[in-house]
Amino acid sequence: TTLAYAALGEIDKAEEGILKLEAELETDAMGSALNLLILCNTMLGNHEVAIKYAERGIGYRLPMMVYLFTEPVLKPLYAIPRFRELKQEVLGDSGKAEISKRKYGKSLLDDDLRGQYQQQLKLLMSQDKPYLDPKLTLRDLAQMMNIPPNQLSQLLNEGFGKNFAEYVNSYRLETFKAKAADATQQVLTILAVAYDSGFNSKTVFNTFFKKMEGKTPRAFWKEVTK
Predict the structure, then answer these.
(1) Neighbours of 5 (CB within 10 A)
(2) How far is 26 from 46, CA to CA, in rounded Å?
(3) Domain that holds residue 190
(4) 7 and 85: one domain?
(5) What average pLDDT does range 176-181 have in this prediction?
(6) What long-range pairs does 94-100 form, CB within 8 A, spacing at least 24?
(7) With contact defined as beta carbons under 8 Å apart, do 192 and 12 qualify?
(8) 119 in a structural domain
(9) 3-state secondary structure of 99
């Protein structure tokens, strides 16, 4: 629907849809949300925004990015040097929808390096608590680790069995649970504590909490505040 509004030039409705898609970037629907955000922003003339989302998709190593770069809708971006660089990176010299085995088909981490990065990341998360920043991105965390975003994405997938959103939100969830059990925090609302734990969306918080705990945040809150 958002894509249709963008195609029809109904800017207000399209922008409402874009806000909803942005909220989905912290959920399991991240891949399809990124895809639509790139297409919609291109149609609306927000070319730099579309390119930023394309960079993010490549950083997450999403397979759909290969096919997205062949979409005719993205032709307005062809004149932008950064987009041409991204397209070259994904499609290679052939310009066809083929994934380079060197870049995408082989692990970027051997066992020793993966283990080293796992320990480094755990230490970073426990000491610096970057997950408390609601605007934290994969690129931000990779910079803190001093490694490329695609290596961090692979580390999370292979070393922890999670994508970026799942990994970061798991820390936010544990922080929320600890705060909820703290009597000094119980004067606050559930949502206030969730935001203070790093979540930036009520929908994402509720969905992730229910998925991981098998109950709603309110049910959990009642249990710990009896």
Answers:
(1) 20
(2) 22
(3) 171-224
(4) yes
(5) 93
(6) 96/70, 97/66, 97/67, 97/69, 97/70, 98/66, 99/63, 99/66
(7) no
(8) yes
(9) coil
Indicate if 87 and 126 belong to the same structural domain.
Answer: no
Quick check: 156 pLDDT over 50?
Answer: yes
- Residue (of 216, 172, 168, 162) closest to 197 by Cα position: 172
Distance CA 35, CA 65 (A): 8
First-to-final CA distance of the chain: 44
Q: State the Cα–Cα distance between residues 61 and 56, nearest whole angstrom.
A: 9
Same domain? For 85 and 11 the reply is yes
Residue 218 located in a structural domain: yes
Q: How many helices (H) and strands (E) does the chain have?
A: 13, 0
Q: What CATH number corresponds to the domain at position 134? A: 1.10.10
Instruction: Please check whether residue 84 lies inside any domain of the structure.
Output: yes
Q: Does 106 map to a domain?
A: no
pLDDT category at 199 given cuts 50, 70, 90 is very high
